[in-house]
């Protein structure tokens, strides 16, 4: 029985060996004769140290480790300090990182009004002295202090420093528009009441209308210009008006009333512009202001002439 089993086992091994040899021949013939020189078995993988689950979670971001809070014993001095000590109300020195109510109010005043109160946080509990040139430790306060004192990053002072603190107008500056209007009206009245009748009398060829001078002014508002010209006499009003404007603007310049305040954004940008541009912009604003004043005076002249024509028509009709 044992010999038959041995023969069967030997027969099975021989069949397996023949199948293995045939498979090796087929593989060699498919890959070529030099295939064993290039084909090698993969080396075994090296053994890696075991990775803890805690470290893997930290690496993947699934877990955010929190530091263990320190245990404060009853004998430590921090436990005996009250919560009011941080604001300077206790016996211990105040915490420099906590601002008091006065310091917060000073920062609020500096942000809103640009007035005093700019500077580093005062930890001594007293108000900071005006004109302190110490460098603030807080970057925000350093920026606010440099903007309030004029010049940022070593830049010279310019018109931007006075943009937030505009000076109030003096009484003369407030009265100058009224002076312009009154001067123009007086000039128009002088020509309408005195100069025009004199020119009418000296002109012998002028048509004499019933009703006197008021009748001539009233004709301007009732009918078109006749072939003979205007009903009133021509006068050198233009040159008188130009002379009056030159006198008024000269008074503006020599008295220093022509100071021009640019807009806030433009005033902040002027110190950073190249050298000729700030002067060109400032003088351009001054000339624009003079042109606006000239237009206002011309409007006052037109209003005065219209009022004279209206009044002359009323008086001529009443007469």
Automatic annotation (TrEMBL):
Per UniProt, the keywords (alphabetical) are:
Membrane, Transmembrane, Transmembrane helix
Biased composition, class Basic and acidic residues, residue ranges: 31-43
Origin superkingdom:
Eukaryota
Which residue windows are transmembrane per the record?
A: 175-194, 263-285, 297-316
Q: Which segments carry the region annotation Disordered?
A: 1-138
Compositionally biased intervals (Low complexity): 64-82
GO BP of this protein: retrograde vesicle-mediated transport, Golgi to endoplasmic reticulum
**UniProt name for this protein:** Golgi to ER traffic protein 2
Q: Which organism is it from?
A: Dentipellis fragilis
């Amino acid at each position: 029985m044992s010999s038959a089993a041995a023969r069967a086992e030997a027969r099975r091994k021989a069949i397996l060996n023949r199948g293995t040899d045939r498979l090796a021949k087929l593989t060699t013939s498919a890959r070529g004769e030099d295939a064993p020189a290039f084909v090698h078995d993969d080396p075994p993988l090296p053994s890696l140290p075991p990775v803890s689950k805690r470290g893997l979670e930290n690496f993947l971001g699934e877990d955010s480790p929190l530091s263990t809070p320190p245990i404060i014993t009853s004998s430590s001095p921090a436990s005996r300090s009250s919560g009011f000590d941080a604001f300077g109300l206790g016996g211990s020195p105040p915490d420099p990182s906590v601002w008091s109510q006065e310091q917060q109010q000073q920062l609020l005043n500096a942000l809103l009004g640009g007035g005093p109160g700019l500077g580093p946080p005062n930890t001594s509990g007293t108000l900071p002295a005006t004109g302190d040139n110490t460098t603030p430790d807080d970057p925000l306060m350093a920026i606010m202090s440099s903007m309030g004192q004029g010049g940022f990053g070593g830049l010279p002072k310019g018109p931007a420093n006075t943009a937030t603190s505009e000076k109030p107008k003096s009484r003369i500056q407030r009265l100058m528009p009224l002076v312009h209007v009154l001067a123009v009206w007086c000039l128009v009245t002088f020509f309408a009441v005195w100069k025009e009748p004199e020119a009418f009398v000296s002109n012998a060829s002028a048509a004499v209308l019933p009703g006197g001078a008021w009748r001539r002014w009233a004709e301007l508002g009732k009918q078109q210009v006749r072939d003979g010209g205007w009903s009133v006499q021509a006068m050198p009003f233009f040159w008188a008006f130009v002379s009056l404007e030159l006198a008024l603007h000269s008074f503006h310049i020599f008295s220093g009333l022509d100071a021009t305040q640019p807009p806030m954004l433009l005033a902040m940008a002027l110190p950073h512009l190249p050298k000729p541009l700030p002067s060109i912009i400032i003088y351009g604003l001054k000339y624009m202001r003079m042109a606006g004043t000239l237009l206002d005076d011309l409007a006052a002249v037109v209003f005065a002439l219209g009022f004279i024509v209206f009044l002359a028509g009323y008086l001529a009709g009443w007469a």
